[in-house]
Amino acid sequence: MGSMGDWPEIRVLSDTGEKSSWTREVNRREQDALYRVGRHIEIDYVLQKHRGKFSTQNPERSAL
Asked: What is the 3-state secondary structure (H, E, C) of the chain?
C-alpha cells in the first residue's frame, strides 16, 4: 500500500534499471495474485498536458 497505507501501489523496476511506483488496479479480487515479485508486467498510461492559463487581459478574447 502506498502513501499512508490506504492506496494500492506496485513498485516497478524497468529493464533499464529505473524504479517507479504505479497505482495497482484489479477488476476482481482474484486478479490481485497477478502482482508478484519477479513477474513481467505491461504498463499502459496516458500523458496528459495541462492547458495554459486563460488570459483575461484581452476583452475580445474573454467574451468567447
From this structure: CECCCCECEEEEECCCCCEEEEECCCCCHHHHHHCCCCCCCCCCCCCCCCCCCCCCCCHHHHCC
Regarding pTM above 0.70, the answer is no
Number of domains in the chain: 1
Q: What is the pLDDT of residues 36-47, one digit of tens each?
A: 888 888 888 899
The boundaries of the domain holding residue 34 are 1-49
Higher pLDDT, 52 or 28: 28
